[in-house]
């Protein structure tokens, strides 16, 4: 019986040592993010950019230009991205840091977008490990011009989008501050 218990203990400790450590996970996340950064730099997509902070590779700042022929045309939006320790198997947390008036963005900058939810979460998440920073930013840029009014975070904006585009544009411009204005105001 003692040898059986010893075998079980050895098997248990072997299982623990074969599990990836958090430092291994973090190294994998950093490697993935470095690869994504290189892709963004070597194959830039017009209207989007993103860079990590100087001190933390898992915290990025991004810029998205408003799509043409939308109320957001010629506007620039800043976003923050925070990558979890299990990225790319879980989505980054993405927030608008520039104030934005939009049906799928709340006043705190949180975004309701299916690809920003883990797959299987309530059956509605569409995150996949094949997605990356560039695809997330392109999806957000697309969302600006094509809101999902059936799942609004800002009900007033959803109603106004369908009812009166002229008034909607006025609200967009009233809420928006260019990134340089935000910095000058200490935000």
Automatic annotation (TrEMBL):
**Where is the stretch described as Disordered?**
1-26
Q: Which Pfam families match?
A: UQ_con
GO MF: ATP binding; transferase activity
InterPro entries linked to this entry: Ub_conjugating_enzyme, UBC, UBQ-conjugating_AS, UBQ-conjugating_enzyme/RWD
Identify the residues that the record assigns to the UBC core domain, covering every copy. Answer: 28-181
Keywords recorded for this protein, A-Z? ATP-binding, Nucleotide-binding, Transferase, Ubl conjugation pathway
Q: Where is the active site?
A: 112
Q: Which PANTHER family match?
A: UBIQUITIN-CONJUGATING ENZYME E2
Family named by the database record: Belongs to the ubiquitin-conjugating enzyme family.
Q: What is this protein called?
A: Ubiquitin-conjugating enzyme E2 2
